[in-house]
Specification:
Largest sheet: 2 strands, antiparallel
Structural class: mainly alpha
Number of strands: 2
Order of helices and strands: HHHHHHHHHHHEE
Radius of gyration: 23 Å
Helix content: 55-70%
Shape: globular
Distance between the termini: 62 Å
Amino acid sequence: MTRTTTYILTAVSVVLFILLAWAFADGLFALDNLFSGEYYAEYTIWTYLMLAAIIGAGLYQAQQLPDAGVVTEPTGETRTPGQTDDPRIWKLLIGNTYWAVFWMPIRFFVGLQWLQAGEHKLRDGAWMSGGSSLQGFWERAVAVPEPPGRAAITYSWYRDVLQYMLDHEWYTWFAKVVAVGEFMVGLGLIVGALVGIAAFSGTLLNVSFMLAGTTSSNPVLFALTVFLVLAWKVAGAWGVDRFLIPLLGSPWTPGSLARRRVPVVSEVPIA
């Protein structure tokens, strides 16, 4: 990884963020909405701050590199029978923190969508006081129209699950879980805290909505978030995970928090 490579990677990341905002969202760069709007997460100042964060991270990383750059090539080829290997670029993207700038635009875009959706629900009494909005959503989802109309839900088992929750009035508390969950997923992705867990939680929400017959932005968010799940080790390197992952470690490598020093017992000579 050289300074030139870092500059190119940063430029690609900036373009990717702009393309995502242009193709899959409206008004994220509107100058007349920088500090105005019904919801704080809809202020477009966040878009520009995120863009600045991508550029700042890339420039900072480039300046920290030595003139000759650093070697980031994966070493050691696996040659055991039956074992397959991954392409070089994919191993770098999902396993090398020097390439983490690439994941910032995806994190920011997906995180902002969840943050906006979560804030809407958190500040809506129909979600936070009684859950009538979720109740209505479930009722519409389980409804089976007369032919030739088609039901919103394809799988009968999922309709039975929603009907069970409706009959037991789970929407009264489940609506709060959805609202808080969406907001926390968005916040986690934006600040880069436990990105893998936040992204996986986001995919569960996407799948739940799609199984209930709602398309909206869920397919796009699901597709983008799957990549964040795969890149969980490095996607939050420009964020809180830079400190959390070394602290917490992984299931196969304990972090500094889990490590314990083994006391040294000095041998006592037997008289």
